[in-house]
Amino acid sequence: MAKLTWHGHATVQLDSDQGFVAVVDPWITQNPVHPTKQLPEKVDVILVTHDHFDHVTDAVALAEKTGAKVVAQPEVIAQLVKEGLKEEQGIGMNIGGTVEIGPLSAHMVHAFHSSQNGTPAGYIMTLDNTVVYHLGDTGLFGDLQLFGELHAIDYALIPVGGHYTMDYKLGALAAKMLKAKKVIPIHYRTFPLLLQDANQFVEEVKRVSPGTEVVVPEIGGTIQL
């Protein structure tokens, strides 16, 4: 059974039964709420949803430390190469595409946000027969319902902090549209502008999507998927 570790904000680590490790949107060393600010020792692949600082700052350093491949849109890869990423470590892809890296399948879908380079995205990933959708940074949009129909999503990682992304009310509607078995709130608690705890999201999901379970890991905490 795969494991998921929430490193705070939008940084999520997935570990397979066989020790394969994927990290999405690495921002650890400068994250004010991360308990250790230490990068993982072993990572096989890094996936970047968009290149705002709070999603990509540690990508090059983590790739250099671990030798991990980096998956992102070509424009983001090109920028990371300028910042020191080895070209052979970059895997450019785009919305609608799927990459297979070891036991991980990652399908890139669109998100509604902004990005310095390329366009914002999310990843619908399959690892150890578990489907995990990382929405990236996004507002609410109608295709979330389509994604829920096309993919049997076990876990959806939903930004709920507000201001830069959906707030907890829209996040709860996203949970309903996706029909995910379980949802995990992300992109909150980090800055004063953002939602500071998940309680309102938990209660709103109970109200609008009572069949959906909300899982709230601690920052740095790990759950079994």
Structural notes for this entry:
The protein is an alpha/beta fold and 225 residues long. The protein has a single domain (3-214), classed as Ribonuclease Z/Hydroxyacylglutathione hydrolase-like (Metallo-beta-lactamase, Chain A, 4-Layer Sandwich), CATH 3.60.15. The chain contains 6 helices and 14 strands. It has helices at 53-56, 59-66, 74-82, 143-150, 168-178, 199-208; strands at 3-6, 12-15, 21-24, 45-47, 69-72, 90-92, 98-101, 104-110, 121-127, 130-134, 155-159, 182-186, 213-214, 222-224. The strands form 2 sheets. It has a 7-stranded mixed beta sheet, covered by helices on one side. The model has no long low-confidence stretch (mean pLDDT 98).
List keywords for this structure.
globular, 6 helices, alpha/beta, 225 residues, single chain, Metallo-beta-lactamase, Chain A
Principal-axis shape equals globular
Say what oligomer this is: single chain
**Secondary-structure element sequence?**
EEEEHHEHEEEEEHEHEHEE
Structural class of the secondary elements? alpha/beta
Estimated radius of gyration: 16 Å
Number of continuous helical runs = 6
Tell me about the largest β-sheet.
7 strands, mixed
Residues in helix, %: 10-25%
According to CATH, what is the topology? Metallo-beta-lactamase, Chain A
- What order do the strands of the largest sheet run in, or round the barrel if closed? 6-5-4-3-2-1-14
Mean pLDDT: 98
Total domain count: 1
Q: CATH superfamily, please?
A: Ribonuclease Z/Hydroxyacylglutathione hydrolase-like
Query: Any guess at the CATH architecture?
Result: 4-Layer Sandwich
Stretches where pLDDT is under 50 for at least 5 consecutive residues are none
Q: So what's the CATH class?
A: Alpha Beta
- The strand count comes to 14
Beta-strand percent range? 25-35%
Distance between the termini: 6 Å
